[in-house]
Specification:
There is one protein chain. With 316 residues, the chain is α+β, with helices and mostly antiparallel strands. It has one domain. Helix content is 20%, strand content 10%.
């Protein structure tokens, strides 16, 4: 019986078509991606700035607790702005992490907030820490003491946070030969009135506030230049200062230089009030007056800085 053999199937040739973008299509895609990036980047940048502002307020809230804990543990006394220089190894104080030469108000509260401000605190001015910094110009090692918007402002003298030292703890000496002749310290916390309306700590511009914005130079660690942002920032002068009988960060300079708040958070400065709450305020809302060139004038309003509520500068 004859059986037909199956016919062998011929392989099918499938034509393949290579798909490719034309130059015009590529340009359109690139343009769309660029447009999306231009839309999203400002939003992402704004979100990051808002996150830093929130973190700054959180820092100040913790520091506000430190102010009250310090007062409770130190016979009701407010913090000093910074202990005075008596000699190369005095004045010193015990802080979180060791003994420190001339600690600022931030370092003085470190034991209260349980956060070491320095990796290697030094007890003398002319000694050097493990990072190569002198004893009176050490860098904060904890981000708690640095505003996140200016994260490189770590110098304890050129700090990002300033203290209302004139009214709350002016520990400068009236007489250099008398180590106990503090100008206005100690100040008792319970003696302060309207603590919810008195500035304690805020973002500080330093003595660059005395210069027009166009003439303010960038921050430099360990610098002493009056026109640099952050210079002597730990001293925060109130809006109204008396150039003849009062006080300011650069009182002995010629010309005199004053500090002021730094509106680094979307044209506002983050402020800690004595009662412990923190918020953002524009400089004029805090009583500051700016000259036509943008520099800060000596004549503002001190109602939110003077615990009595009176608009008057601090005088010796």
């Amino acid at each position: 019986m004859w059986t037909p053999r199956p016919t062998r199937a011929l392989p099918l040739r499938i034509a393949t078509i290579r798909a490719a973008f034309t130059l015009i299509e590529l340009l359109v895609v690139i343009a769309i991606i660029g447009l999306l990036i231009s839309i999203l980047l400002p939003a992402l940048g704004g979100a990051r700035r808002q996150a830093r502002t929130t973190k700054c307020a959180a820092n100040l809230h913790i520091l506000g607790q430190g102010i009250h804990i310090y007062a409770n543990e130190n016979t009701d006394n407010m913090l000093p702005g910074r202990l005075p220089r008596i000699d190369n190894c005095n004045a010193v104080a015990e802080i979180k992490g060791g003994v420190k030469y001339r600690p600022t108000f931030l370092a003085m509260m470190s034991a209260s907030v349980r956060e070491s401000p320095f990796n290697d605190p030094q007890r003398c001015r002319n000694t050097v820490d493990r990072d190569g910094e002198a004893g009176d110009r050490q860098n904060y090692s904890s981000p708690l003491y640095i505003c996140p918007e200016v994260a490189d402002w770590s110098d304890e003298r050129n700090g990002s946070y300033g203290y209302n030292y004139q009214f709350l703890g002016n520990s400068r000496l009236r007489v250099t030969s008398d180590p106990d002749s503090y100008k206005n310290w100690p100040v008792r916390l319970t003696a302060l009135k309207r603590i919810g309306d008195v500035v304690a700590v805020a973002d500080s511009l330093g003595t660059a506030a005395s210069f027009p914005p166009a003439l303010r130079r960038p921050y430099v660690n360990n610098a002493n230049d009056a026109d640099r942002r952050g210079n002597e920032g730990f001293n925060l002068d109130p809006p109204r200062v008396d150039p003849s009988q009062g006080e300011m960060a650069g009182f002995d300079d010629s010309p005199q230089h004053r500090t002021a708040v730094d509106a680094r958070h979307n044209d506002k400065a983050t402020v800690l009030w004595v009662d412990g709450h923190a918020n953002a305020q524009k400089p004029n809302a805090l009583g500051y007056v700016q000259n036509a060139d943008g520099s800060f004038a000596f004549d503002g309003t001190n109602e939110l800085w003077n615990p009595t509520g009176r608009d008057e500068p601090w005088r010796q």
